[in-house]
Amino acid sequence: MATSESCGREEKEMEESFPMTGGDGPHSYTKNSRQQRAAAASAKSMLTSGILENLVVEHSSKMFAIADLGCSTGPNTFIAMDNIIEAVTQKCKIKGYSSLPEFQVYFNDHVSNDFNILFANLPSDRKYFAFGVPGSFHGGLFPKASLNIIYSAFALHWLSRAPQELGDVNSPACNKGRIYYSNAPHEVGQAYSLQYAKDMESFLAARAEELAPGGLMIILMPGRPDGTLPSQNSLGPFIKPLESCLTDMVDEEIIRNHEIDSFNMPLYSPSMEELRKLIEKNGCFGIARLETLPPMSVSLPSVEECRSGFGSILRKHFRSEIIEQLFERYPAKIAGKPPIKASDGFTIGLFVILKRNV
Amino acid sequence: MATSESCGREEKEMEESFPMTGGDGPHSYTKNSRQQRAAAASAKSMLTSGILENLVVEHSSKMFAIADLGCSTGPNTFIAMDNIIEAVTQKCKIKGYSSLPEFQVYFNDHVSNDFNILFANLPSDRKYFAFGVPGSFHGGLFPKASLNIIYSAFALHWLSRAPQELGDVNSPACNKGRIYYSNAPHEVGQAYSLQYAKDMESFLAARAEELAPGGLMIILMPGRPDGTLPSQNSLGPFIKPLESCLTDMVDEEIIRNHEIDSFNMPLYSPSMEELRKLIEKNGCFGIARLETLPPMSVSLPSVEECRSGFGSILRKHFRSEIIEQLFERYPAKIAGKPPIKASDGFTIGLFVILKRNV
């Protein structure tokens, strides 16, 4: 007799977890996710037309399940779920269906995400049943073929972990004196690229199991232009001021060399070509859309935004006494710096719609 | 076109919410739910045989959804879910099915329940997909016919609110100088009984929608013997020491009269007869079992148990400065008091299995 195994959890527990800052204080993701919201808003019409053109919804469907993978604490996820439900409703109306399915929304993020604040802020006029799903999206989270739309916005650039060789002084991929791979030796970028490929492989395999035939997966994520090297990644400019604060603190002997050498941001932004190859290798999805988000200028993260996104991972690695100092230095690093423009050669956002092959 | 309305949430938001104490500190439910666990453990064989005898599970079932309504923060809910899955697995084996369904467990409690601690303690070797469901079980929580087993242990004695007339000095049901209905005028017990009937009506109506045909609802809850008055309720002796502390504090003019007059514990323990009538009135369920749990002696709640269960509701009503004093007095009230025995004339626990009529 086959048993329903422990649902991929062994895999998940080997990983690290770096949730956005919880609560609703000044450093919380709830209060510091304006830029992600603006990017998702710019994609609304692409999302609506993508659903209208590609979604298969049957007249007889009584339930319709949507999952937001890496939803964090809101409010961005609530806006996105409303947009998706609006588009599915529109599709049902166009088809002339006499009734709508009952919508279920599954809000997923790491176990350490602040689900209490997510639940406390659920819109009271929501038109769906709401569920929280704790766990890493690098493993399985749902029963087979149980989801109709999988959505993930600005979460899939988080790797399950930084490649381990980056911190190994004996490896050619050792990332000495840096926390990221911009301007790093080729081997460092390669190590990041390989980790990303491995993570996407397990991500796509899990989602292929969970998405019902005819269902859609909609992904918004940072990406870089085709034909560029990993080291020319689109996230580099946003991480540079933080790295610069840390290297200053190394120069001033506040942080020891080995502390910065062993810290690496587990983030990656693929090129479209790189992503296309990984999707094709998986083989379970057809690519309905793979394009760039409308170009927009993006400000460097404010100190609050930086803390909201990276506070958790920095506190985990560095001694707590240096964290306050770090963020005290940060505002001077970004003062007067202009926003990053798409025309600077960085593709800020990718928009992907995948269809589960029937 | 019919729209999927806002899923009964207007109703739910009118209610009050009194979650068990969260976190994992000394006053937490996680650390103070031993008695509830013992009662559920004593019911394990009834639960297993009840599932084996009554559950309809098809060979073709690929998914099997279980909900625990009023699950609090664990660990009791994890033990119960394992017991249920073990029994369903046993039933599948007896039937000779070649594969098991994929299990989903939906953990439900009020929005203000500590889901973060619930998720952090999810067993790593669990054989199910885990979801959190924030909201009151007095309203709808799930899509139609989406659940195979609904379980609720020691949660359904919580009313959606204390009857409002209890605090109204102009009502014959005004509950002056008491926080509960033991030894109260007939009208007070009646008001509680009516509120319970109203709450069970909405509870059963919601569950009738959500339970799949052939599915089971398993309820453990406090109850009193048939032929007794509401005022002879089984919870009275457990609340008496707390009431006694509060009335002492009124006598000493630490608490004002109106503060205690307007506070009433929103708890009720029905007789089997009373519960049977409400189930029959609803009409969607057949009663497979309605019996008492194995008799056991139950200690009066320790100060930690009392805080874990009632800390939230007391803090909501009384000035915070009296709460510490109240719990300082409490241990003296219970010192040397013997446990409540079933033979004292109180039926401590009811065990109910309902089958959704096909």
TrEMBL record, chains A, B:
Keywords: Magnesium, Metal-binding, Methyltransferase, Transferase. GO terms for molecular function: metal ion binding; methyltransferase activity. Coiled coil: none annotated. Residues 1-31 are annotated as: Disordered. GO terms for biological process: methylation. InterPro entries: MeTrfase_7 (IPR005299), MeTrfase_capping (IPR042086), SAM-dependent_MTases_sf (IPR029063). Pfam families: Methyltransf_7. PANTHER family: S-ADENOSYL-L-METHIONINE:CARBOXYL METHYLTRANSFERASE FAMILY PROTEIN (PTHR31009). This is Probable S-adenosylmethionine-dependent methyltransferase At5g37990. It comes from Populus euphratica. The lineage of its organism: Eukaryota, Viridiplantae, Streptophyta, Embryophyta, Tracheophyta. The gene is LOC105113931.
